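lol so apparently i was supposed to do this last week
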Amino acid sequence: MNRGVFLKTDIIKFGENQKENKIKLERIADTLKDGGLVVFPTETVYGLGGNGLDKNACKKIYEAKGRPSDNPLILHIAEIKQLKELVEEIPEVAKKCMDRFWPGPLTIIFKRSKLVPNEATGGLDTVAIRMPSNEIAHEILKEVYLPIAAPSANLSGRPSPTETKHVVKDLKGRVDIIVDGGHSVVGIESTVLDVTVDPPMILRPGKITLEDLRKIDKNINIDSATIDAKSGEIPKSPGQKYKHYAPKAPAICFGGGLDKIIIEIKKNIKENKGKKIAVLASSESYDEYKNEGVDLLINLGSREHLEEVATNLFSALRKCDEEEVDIIFAEGYEFRGMGLSIMNRLLKACGGKVVMRIWGVKWK
Ligand code: TXA
Ligand code: MG
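anyway here it is w/ threonylcarbamoyladenylate bound
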């Protein structure tokens, strides 16, 4: 951890004045070039950025986040031209995915070149690369013109930040600059696709879904560990390995048809009378819980538009912490499309405290 180091963190926001914006941009780029740390918005979540070719900057990222140094970082680039020197080869399938989804919320894992330091990849011989579509991220990456290593800008184990206030809470005093870019649009981290294996594998589901990627190459598959469920099996107790996204209160996720979920959650609300209860509902079910004595009732969005649910998920988990609730009941979603990506995060948020009352949804 950053023991004894307390940085004066500046918060920078871009405005209407282009001249001032340019000065701000140059300051951000200089900070990164000098080995400093800058949190910047991306379309997925905020990233904690440092020069990905500078091993000391990479080390500082791990320290600021309190992250184990064997968990590799993603390098962020502004232009395809930057990719060549970072990787050993660009497989055909990667080219097609880049054509279709870059800039955007897709991270691709390549064999790395010698230029990329061990400190960025946790010693792996592969490197994760992504080209964000967020305009501020793009401007910063273009200005600095270096691959910027950036994990999600949360303290290790906490939900990824989708608003500046989340970043301030976790990282103020630990980074040089925080760039305020409003609420992240996608709200969950990028899809991670490994093209160094055959067939290519999704290691983390995101907005770009398995279904989207199979339109590029029908052989692309998804690592079943991403939801800890094999071919529709009921996920067992996730146990210790899930330390991500954890809200402070125990969270329980309920699956199955929405009618059953509502009945189960209402039953659990009754059983937990006296506790401060949060319910993560959807637009379709929100009204059902209104008169049930729920202390914090959050509408994540419509089941017909799972993008909404994804956008609001991490903010909701953090809200549960702010409100210091005792227990969280979350509705589950289908294990396909964006639903799979949402469930990947939700199950981790419930890690170690998950009680799956009703499952039966095939995810393949
Ligand atoms: O949307 C995102 O990807 C955000 C924004 C800031 O770009 N970044 C992000 O970074 O989520 P991070 O470090 O929190 O998550 C990166 C994930 C980790 O699960 C890491 O293990 C995996 O990508 N990863 C990175 N490099 C890898 C590699 N070479 N092989 C396998 N997995 C890798
Ligand atoms: Mg992360």
